[in-house]
Design a protein that fits this description.
The complex is a heterodimer.
Chain A lengths: L1 H27 L5 H6 L5 H11 L5 H13 L15 H36 L4 H15 L2 H15 L21 H7 L3 H38 L2 H8 L4 H38 L5 H10 L3 H29 L1 H4 L2
Helix pairs in contact in A: 1-13, 5-6, 5-9, 5-11, 5-13, 6-9, 7-9, 7-11, 8-9, 9-11, 11-12, 11-13, 12-13
Chain B lengths: L1 H13 L4 E10 L7 E11 L4 E5 L6 H9 L7 E9 L2 E2 L5 H7 L4 E4 L13 H13 L3 H14 L5 H4 L9 H13 L5 E5 L7 H18 L2 E6 L2 H7 L2 E6 L2 E7 H6 L4 H8 L49 E3 L2 E3 L14 H5 L5
Parallel strand pairs in B: 3-8, 3-9, 6-7, 7-8
Antiparallel strand pairs in B: 1-2, 1-4, 4-5, 9-10, 10-12, 11-12
Helix pairs in contact in B: 4-5, 4-7, 5-7, 7-8
Classes of the chains: A mainly alpha, B alpha/beta.
The complex binds adenosine-5'-triphosphate (ATP) and magnesium ion.
């Protein structure tokens, strides 16, 4: 088991190196560039050349890349040129990261808590009205774009009725910061109004963000439970006279969860994509919003670190999922 | 020896049945399809401690019969009628909860494919212990040593270590032993074994049959042995029911039935088993397949494949008639019976 985890971590290093390389060359092949963005369209060629020399952008690409890797290894991630000019790119990432994690965690939790029981019930009542209704619902969930869902939610519950905040992460209450996860901070410092405010700000964005993972997890759970209930070992469990509760949890769900686990890991990718849109609609100060503005300003340093860290998170989450998979499925563990 | 067996059989026949199946009919009805009667008015008895065989080709309704007795058929798409009387209670009219209490405790079942019948992600020990927890009210801690004891009893070496193993870590024979351990955990009065050896290779088959025989003799559990293999029946069963097309076509005590099969189908089945004492003699399989069956409503379903059909066979349904401890559904029974191995030889023939 330990060797397995170590092997996967080594893969993670490989993925990160390759990705950083691709990212570096891809970003620099984009039209525009930071100099234009910093100096504006009307700067003279002379001004541009001077700034390029200062930033080292006049060097050949491969030399720039070696210099870049050298800086990264020394822990210098470069300074922002557009999002927050002069600020350290890593600091920008670290300031934004907890916000997005908090949002995604809440969204995934909502999706899982709703999707797995519903998927199970739909499968057990295969062909019923409830089954068909939830299938249609999940199709709608997949088909409607996230930003549209986000916009509708914002319009109805924030703008029109004013039940929930329109934007931001927390009301200005002078809250103490410890972990930068606002709900957690509020609970740890017993500033419960802070936690409540953070939670209120999270409700609409996280529901918007949860729609697609909900629909996907629901459908996989349903299909997987349908497969498992016709397995011989479920009949064996029935023949033992076990209670419905034991048959459901130990014999059906434990087997049916295997494909669901994998899909939850893969959803992290689409979750990050959804976060960009949701954060933009709700002006939520997370990675997604920073990604949009750094892209607009060709802020290489910030863009690089954001995308790279997103990839690392993706690979890490899938590593965790694979480990969980091995915990649930002895056939993987004891190979 | 034959006399003592006969006397024992006579005594057994006097006792009240443990399980008494009457007119069991299972009709499958799929949307937009003709209803299909997989089991058609089957009646038989099982007395305490008795081993009864249910024999017939693939698709004749053996599994459906056993699943109907256990109430394990799918909830939708079928209709079960008749009665299944177990110790004075009709199982078919019990509530779901009451039936659940009996399954695994009073009646247990061993299935055909031991790998797919065990849960791949649950340790073996838990799969044995959970029956004891359910029906004996034991805690997990108390049940585990009992589970190990059970695994030992069915011949699994190093049982304490095996408790933590998963099904994929066991050989086919071990898995079937484990399934048997699960089935006998609560000392049920009736055990139903649905082709328990079909998925195993020949030497393992013999071991599993010997184990079942030993368990049944030690505990006095009654056994319904479902098989398409008359060799299995020969070594194990007191009484044999031969099923064809969802109906019983012949029933008799093992020795008389083997010595003197009356139904052409039983005769055909016997002629198609390889015999130890007749090396070189040609086997004669029954021609055709179940696809040729006539409907029972106005004919004998077996007539198109029969070796000696007469005109009435395709016009009138034969009834199950009982005479001298033999039940027979045939218009034109075999008279000069198949001269098969004598009773003594069949007994030694378990290994087949
Ligand atoms: N759930 C079901 N729905 C519809 N038809 C079924 C169902 N289960 C069984 N049948 C049909 O009932 C008939 C009897 O099936 P059964 O499984 O009892 O055969 P069997 O005698 O056990 O055969 P085998 O030796 O292959 O196990 C078959 O024709 C089968 O197609
Ligand atoms: Mg069968």
């Amino acid at each position: 088991m330990l060797r397995y985890i170590v092997r996967r971590l080594a893969q993670l290093v490989g993925v990160t190196v390759v990705l950083s390389m691709l990212l570096f060359f891809w970003l620099r092949s984009l039209p525009g560039g930071p100099v234009n963005a910093m100096l504006g369209e009307r700067a003279t060629p002379d001004q541009k050349a001077r700034l390029e020399a200062v930033l080292g952008l006049d060097q050949p690409l491969h030399i720039q890349y070696v210099a870049y890797v050298g800086r990264i290894l020394r822990g210098e991630f470069g300074n922002s040129s557009a999002v927050l000019p002069g600020a350290d790119a890593m600091d920008i990432f670290l300031a934004r990261f907890p916000a997005t994690i908090e949002l995604s965690l809440v969204a995934v939790t909502i999706a899982i808590i709703a999707a797995i029981p519903l998927g199970y019930i739909a499968a057990r009542r295969h062909g019923s009205i409830l089954d068909n209704a939830t299938i249609v619902g999940s199709l709608v969930g997949i088909a409607v774009p996230v930003f549209f869902t986000a916009f509708l939610l914002k319009y109805w519950f924030a703008v029109k009725y004013g039940w929930l905040p329109v934007s931001g992460r927390q009301a200005n209450l002078g809250c103490t910061r410890i972990t930068k996860f606002f709900i957690l901070d509020g609970l740890m410092t017993r500033e419960f109004d802070c936690a409540a405010s953070a939670l209120k700000h999270l409700i609409l964005p996280s529901i918007a963000l949860a729609t697609i993972p909900f629909a996907v997890i629901f459908r996989i759970t349903r299909a997987s439970v349908l497969d498992v209930v016709s397995e011989d070992y479920v009949r064996t469990a029935e023949a033992k006279g076990l209670t419905n509760r034991v048959i459901r949890s130990r014999h059906i769900l434990r087997n049916a969860m295997l494909p669901v686990l994998t899909i939850i890991g893969l959803q992290v990718g689409s979750l990050l994509a959804g976060a960009i849109l949701t954060e933009t609609v709700f002006n939520y100060p997370g990675i997604g919003e920073a990604l949009v503005s750094s892209f607009r300003g060709r802020d290489y340093a910030v863009l690089q670190i954001l995308i790279l860290m997103a990839a690392v998170v993706f690979v890490l989450v899938n590593l965790i999922v694979d480990v969980l998979y091995a915990v649930v499925d002895p056939r993987v563990r004891t190979r | 020896m034959t006399t003592t067996t006969t006397e024992r059989r006579a005594a057994v026949r006097e006792t009240a049945p443990l399980l008494s199946v009457r007119d069991l009919t299972v009709t499958f009805q799929r949307h937009g399809e003709e209803p299909f009667r997989a089991v058609d008015g089957v009646s038989f008895d099982v007395r305490p401690g008795e081993t009864v065989g249910l024999v017939g080709e693939s698709g004749c309704g053996k599994s459906v019969t056993s699943l109907a007795i256990m109430r394990l058929l799918p909830k939708r798409g079928n209709k079960v009628t008749g009665t299944v009387n177990f110790e004075g209670t009709d199982l078919l009219s019990l509530s779901d909860a009451k039936m659940r209490d009996r399954r695994g405790r009073d009646i247990a079942m061993v299935f055909q494919d031991p790998l797919s019948s065990l849960n791949p992600v649950v340790p073996l020990g838990v799969q044995v212990a959970e029956v004891l927890e359910r029906h004996r009210g034991m805690s997990r801690k108390a049940a585990m040593p009992v589970a190990a004891e059970l695994l030992k009893r069915v011949g699994i070496p190093d049982p304490v270590r095996r408790l933590r193993d998963y099904p994929h870590q066991l050989s086919g024979g071990m898995r079937q032993r484990a399934l048997i351990a699960i089935a006998v955990a609560c000392a049920p009065r009736l055990l139903i074994a649905d082709e328990p050896t079909t998925a195993l290779d020949v030497t393992i088959q013999a071991q599993i049959l010997a184990l079942l025989k030993e368990l049944v003799e030690d505990t006095g559990t009654a056994l319904i042995m479902i098989t398409h293999d008359l060799g299995v029946v020969a070594g194990l069963c007191d009484e044999v029911n031969v099923l064809y097309g969802g109906r019983i076509v012949e029933r008799g005590d093992r020795h008389p039935l083997f010595r003197d099969p009356r139904h052409p189908y039983t005769n055909g089945l016997l002629a198609s088993i390889p015999r130890l004492d007749a090396a070189g003699e040609r086997l004669t399989p029954i021609p055709g397949s179940v696809a040729d069956n006539l409907p029972w409503d106005h004919a004998c379903a077996f007539a198109p494949r029969c070796s000696q059909p007469i005109e009435i066979c395709t016009q009138v349904t034969p009834q199950l008639e009982v005479a001298d401890g033999r039940a027979l559904r045939c218009h034109n029974p075999v008279t000069s019976g198949w001269s098969g191995p004598s009773a003594g030889q069949t007994e030694g023939d378990v290994a087949r």
